[in-house]
Amino acid sequence: MKPKVYITRKLPEIIVRKIEAICEVRMWPEEDIPVPRDILLDEVKDIDGLFCLLTESVDESLLNAAPNLKVISNMAVGFNNIDINLATEREMIVTNTPGVLTETTADLTFALLMATARRVVEASAYLREDKWKTWSPMQLTGQDIYGATLGIIGLGRIGEALVKRAKGFDMNILYSNRTRKPEKERELGIQYRELDCLLQESDFVCILIPYSPQVHHLIGQRELGLMKETSVLINTARGGIVDESALYDSLKEGSIWAAGLDVFEEEPVSTNHPLLTLQNVVALPHIGSASKQTRLKMADLAAGNLIRILTGKDAITKVN
Ligand code: GLV
Predict the structure, then answer these.
(1) SS3 for 158?
(2) What is the mean predicted confidence (pLDDT) over 77-98?
(3) All domains of the chain in start order, with CATH
């Protein structure tokens, strides 16, 4: 008998076929609407494997509803949507998709940094709204990127890939990390700082750590207060790392200069969110890894992990 799998979102045909070759597959048929919770809880009743996205909370109620579940394959590198401890306790394997999205996410992080520093979104709206009456000396002026100091919070794969991009702009690069990495400092020509010092010295601060309850609101009022008035905060990790109401106050008061956000505490962010009323915020709908090539690679890796576990092999990229 083929193992039973539920896929929580419509996937490209080629990926579905790959899973169907080995498994009996049921799939939520929508691309842009997540599976309603009651349907999900019903669909998982008899499954051996779950292919899910970061939009699904794989918590105790879901795990209770899926007594046969052996593998949870998350199509994301982050896995804060999954109760890893409970899954481990119940001997379920959790897998994610690291590596394949590193360069694409670093690209987007740098793109967001540049767009925010040089007010690209605001400038484009300015033109379309017919506000462009003449060239003028200080019109839509931003912050220089080349030669500025970049502070990276979290020197993992994506942090390292960001260093390569920043080097091309002659940036002075600082990093903070749970564990210091002296070899990387030598290899990449970067310097370690404690978080507070990094915030004080950097012109651009990029958040690239995984979310866990320990880093909830790591960047709050006190930390934002340490940053320069001309500095730019970029978050392409998880929204919960930044206290959004403190960020709103800092941006409004001008205690930091601007923010580029690809992630929010609640997603999708409400269009009434106070941060979206500010001109000095560039907001994106969580598209860090969103290139056609990378999303296919992520889906393929997640499918590969699922199939390998369900056929008695080791996962390619395992979390627990
Ligand atoms: C996206 O945010 C991911 O974790 O892959």
Answers:
(1) helix
(2) 98
(3) 4-100+292-310 (3.40.50.720), 102-283 (3.40.50.720)
